[in-house]
Amino acid sequence: MLTPYRSRLLASTLFVGATVLAQPAFAQTADPATPPPGATPQEAAPAAESSSGDIIVTGTLIRNPNLVSSSPVSVTSSEEIALKQSTVADRLIRDIPGVAAGIGSNTNNGNGGASFADLRGLGANRNIVLLDGTRITPANLNGNVDLNNIPLALVDRVDLLTGGASTTYGADAVSGVVNFITKRDFAGIDLTVSNGITERGDGNRFRADVTIGGNFDDGKGNAVLSIGYQQADEVFFAGQRPRSNDTLDSFDGTAAGASQTAVPARFSVAGVGNRNIDPTTGNLVPVFAFFNFNPYNIFQTPFERFNIYGAAHYEVSDSLEVYTQGLFSKNTVNTIIAPSGAFSSPVSIPVSNPYLPAGARATFCANNDFNPTMAGVQTLTPAQCALAATATSPTDPNYKEFSTNLSRRAVEAGGRVSQYKTTIFNYRAGLRGQITDSIRYDVYGAYGESENTQTQQNYVLIPRLQQALRSTNTTACLDPTGGCVPVNVFGAAGTITQDAVNFLQAPAFSSNNTSLAQVHGVLNSDLFTIGSASQPVAVAVGGEFRKYKADIQADTLAQSPGALGGAGGGIIPVNGGYRVYEGFGELIMPLVSDAPFAKSLTLEAGIRYSSYKVDAAGSPSFNATTYKGGATWEPIDGLKVRGNYQHAVRAPNIGELFQPSQVGLTNLRTDPCQGQAPVNNALLRAVCIAQGAPASQIGAIDPPSAGQINATFAGNPNNKPEKADTYTAGVVFQPDFVSGFSISVDYYRIRIKNALTAPTPGDTIAACFGNLTAASATSPLCTVIRRDPATGGLDGDASTTPGLPSPTTNSGRLATDGIDVVANYRTNLNDTFKLAVSASANYVFSYKFRAAAGGLNRECAGYYSVNCLPGNALIGGGGSILPEFSLNQRTTLSVKNFDLSLLWRHISSVKQEPFDADASNFGSNGPAFAAFRKIKAYDIFDLSGRVGVTDNVELTVVVENLLDKQPPSVGSNIGSTTFNSGNTYPSTYDALGRRFTVGAHLKF
Q1: Does some domain include residue 199?
Q2: Bridge partners of 805?
Q3: d(CA 288, CA 698)
Q4: Domain containing 326 — which CATH number?
Q5: Is 985 a domain residue?
Q6: CB distance 794 to 801 below 8 Å
Q7: Of 963, 950, 989, 991, which Cα lies nearest the Cα of 21?
């Protein structure tokens, strides 16, 4: 529902739009040779001057605008940005073919308050995000840049080089770079305002930017300042999206995918298994309660950002220009998930607890260990139990407490909220100019800091819950400190009073702080001309120094494993950093011009040497050399053939080196030890017990609740660099006989050895259970898996249940290849109508992912499971979906001052990953529910209308998801929790439905 403020805001925006429409129109003119709106030519990016006065050609350090790189670059123009009316940068990136949907505004559980780019699905840690060709301060230990902080108002274009770029930008550009290029020499006043809302009346998005700039001193200098504000409301799963109201199990189609941490409460009973309390009878009965957590979760995270961007340059003399650039951003992202509570938390409860029903008391007395010093299950006789029920003081010899693992949602407290506040500044200053007519220089220094603070609210504090359970009357706890209030966990929803809720809760705080200092210097020179070449040989040489620092801090609550009910493991403080010293050189060598069958022929080469010094005693240092070679051949006018090879060596980042051992969550639907499986299988029974399951629980171990289990994640200071080889080869065809038409076709291949990855859940389970023998019970492959000591499950309290080991090592391999195709056509139909058609497509031949030595080499292109694509540390599970074929096609019809543009987005069909569906494989989940084994091809249409109302005013109206296409349903546990939620994949498919945006652009 819209708040009164937002209703007025939307109404005022529409009123402004209506007023603007009433003004006289102006004729929009465009050169037929210019790219159409939304064009994404995959020719090397056009040369453009950034706000620093530099010539930016993404993919090369050579600053001669007449020379182009052999690397294919996809360009998102300012026209496309305007037609999309986006509030955040991640929405510009994730729909591009060949880019996997990364963590962004449609990611809720696992968001972390940031948005990341994931080129080719190889992981956000293997690509670089640049601003005008320069690195930005990262947001976390893994070096990932938060796209939320990009100043969209001044972005002129976005270049995506989705292939190796390590020689030009550094070894971590294995899968490519995203380069946001800002406008050069902006002069005037520019005001942009937009407001959008879904057809269901939720998800309001607002954006306003004002930019002021001008030239001074007869054009020698320019300064620009831009201030922006963006805001978005949450969109809940429930609301008016019935496909997501219920939590569905992906493997049987029922609500069994919901959580067993529910209301009424569940208790572990020694020798019996988990039992639910029946509030009507007070008896403990077989598990019947499941908690539908979907209605509490959201499809769009609430977001608010204030940002400032400024840049200036001044030409001191013909040979010297000074420039500066800075940005500041403060953004807030909230994630909202289902209520907290006790998630199989070990507690001790007096037999005389006033809320304990007689039936439950009798079961606990007959099946519990009341004497931990004695082996086996020690029970109380009915007489002893009756005496213990009346013993209200621990000093009474009849006083007894029983131990149990408690699972109970504190629905009375509302949903869990994690508020992430990020404050970042990044500043750059430099000098550039000419030493001679042919030698140019550019030297800059930059420094930035990012602070991301997390406040966890509405979480039940398990130590306080334990304190409140140790009560023998309804008015006071045995330990009254802190204002303890006795709590009733034995009844239906509503039995936990507000006073008890207030006692059980307190916010927890943590912060993630990073900094990046860098110094960069490069010399560019035109040397000499070879043979008939029309352009001289161009060379760039230089050096770079970077210093990264990062730390994580947390208060006592956030640090303590299991202290926050439903938060997974504790947040362990970490501090680390490293320095990089680099020298590099690039060469572009034109060999032939205007010769028969060689309109042009150009070779290029590059090399970068990097020395990494890790800031920790005893940690290894790394030396790495990356290099490239490429060629561009134009046999005739309009036809260009190009190819490029790059070798990269990516050193481990701070997280991969220093992340301490920490329990988090990963995904598994079926536990090999669950149910009756180990009862009549002696080998399996021995393994389950060796992993920590009590012998008394064999035959009574429950499946993982909500398809989630514990895993222990960790970096390693002994991790080594990974190595990558990338190849691209393609053609660009721009025939003279079809005016305004161009097409490029590029093949790419990326191979990464010694990849820094963590084992998938399926691999870890298969390594132990795939071939059981008598030795399995003592094999490290099995005994490294640790179970809950009370229930025997792999899900449980983080303080007692490490779960699956998931360290980051150099045991992985990644390999992908495919084809990118980009076509553009623009023509004047007559004196009035103009037509622009553009298309960008990607076809993935293969994406192989082996997460660990001995693990399966999975084919992940066109498949989904919890094991496909690299996951994220402490999030666990696999990544997003990478379809085999994806396409963006835009058609724009222009008539005088009006543009009407239709964008078609297509994703090919995808299926459950074959290894995951293999019921004979112990590391699989088995075949999914029939309707969830495949997602049909998916098509979305966006319609944009833009009108020039006056010389100074432009109005844009966008209807996204024009046909209100619904997202596919696959249940909620066939993929990782981060990307598979609300019974769909909301970062890949549109879960919001039809929505409308109105934007006004005023320029003076």
Answers
A1: yes
A2: 712
A3: 20
A4: 2.170.130.10
A5: no
A6: yes
A7: 950
Tokens 């006789």 identify what position?
Answer: 381
The Cα-based distances of 734 to 82, 641, 741, 743, 744 in angstroms read 27, 12, 6, 7, 9
The dihedral sign for the CA sequence 12, 18, 19, 25: positive
Residues 6+ positions from 253 with CB-CB distance below 8 Å: 929, 930, 931, 932, 971
Distance in angstroms (rounded) separating the CA atoms of residues 780 and 691: 10
d(CA 64, CA 910) in angstroms, rounded, equals 44
3-state SS class at 830: coil
- Note if the bond before 573 is cis, omega within 30 degrees: no
- Taken in order 115, 116, 117, 118, is the CA torsion positive or negative? negative
pLDDT digits (tens, 9 = 90+) for 841-882: 999 999 999 999 989 999 999 999 999 988 754 455 678 999
Task: For Cα atoms 775, 781, 783, give the angle at the middle one, nearest 5 degrees.
Answer: 80
Q: Say how far apart CA 439 and CA 524 lie, in whole Å.
A: 6
Ramachandran bin of 926, using left for φ above 0, alpha for ψ from -120 to 50, beta for the remaining angles = left
Cβ atoms of 628 and 643 closer than 8 Å: no
Beta strands in 637-676 (DSSP E): 639-650, 662-667
Least confident of 13-17, 444-448, 735-739: 13-17
User: Tens of pLDDT along 542-576?
Assistant: 999 999 999 999 999 999 999 999 988 889 999 99
Q: How far apart are CA 304 and CA 13, in angstroms?
A: 19
Dihedral, CA atoms, 295, 297, 300, 304, nearest 10 degrees?
A: 120
Amino acid identity of residue 406, one-letter, is L
Q: How far apart (Å, rounded) are the C-alpha atoms in residues 291 and 704?
A: 14
Q: Please work out, in degrees rounded to the nearest 5, the angle formed at the alpha carbon of residue 395 by the alpha carbons of 389 and 398.
A: 35
Provide the residue count of the chain. Answer: 1004
Give the number of other CB atoms < 10 A from CB of residue 242: 9
β-strands 809-828, 741-757: how paired?
Answer: antiparallel
Helix (H) or strand (E) holding 91: helix 90-93
Residues 806 and 785: beta-carbon distance below 8 Å: no
Collapsing DSSP to helix, strand or coil, 306 comes out as strand
Q: Is residue 206 part of a domain?
A: yes
Burial zone of 501 (CB within 10 Å; 0-12 exposed, 13-18 middle, 19+ buried) = middle
Could you tell me if residue 4 is inside a domain? no
Please give the Cα distance from 39 to 423 (Å, whole number). Answer: 34
Listed residue (854, 845, 684, 678) closest to 760, CA to CA: 854
Count of structural domains, the chain:
1
pLDDT reported for residue 164: 78
Backbone angles phi, psi at 958, to 5 degrees: -125, 135
For every residue of 394-444, DSSP letters joined together read: TTSTT--EEEEEEEEE-GGG-EEEEEEEEEEEEEEEEEEEESSSSEEEEEE
Q: What end-to-end distance do the CA atoms of the chain give, in Å?
A: 36
Q: Is 70 exceeded by the pLDDT of residue 45?
A: no
- Cα-Cα-Cα-Cα dihedral of 268, 269, 270, 271, to 10°? -110
Closest CA to 320 of 223, 220, 213, 187: 220
When pLDDT is cut at 50, 70 and 90, the band that residue 527 belongs to is very high
Q: How far apart are CA 967 and CA 978, in angstroms?
A: 17
Q: Which residues of 76-108 are buried (b: 16+ CB within 10 A; e: fewer)?
A: bbebbbbbbbbbbbbbbbbbbbbbbbbbbbbbb
Residues 6+ away with beta carbon under 8 Å from 922: 672, 765, 766, 768, 769, 770
With tokens 């607002």, the residue in question is 206
CB 642 within 8 A of CB 731: yes
Range of the domain at 420: 29-237+300-337+416-455
Check whether 42 has a pLDDT greater than 50: no
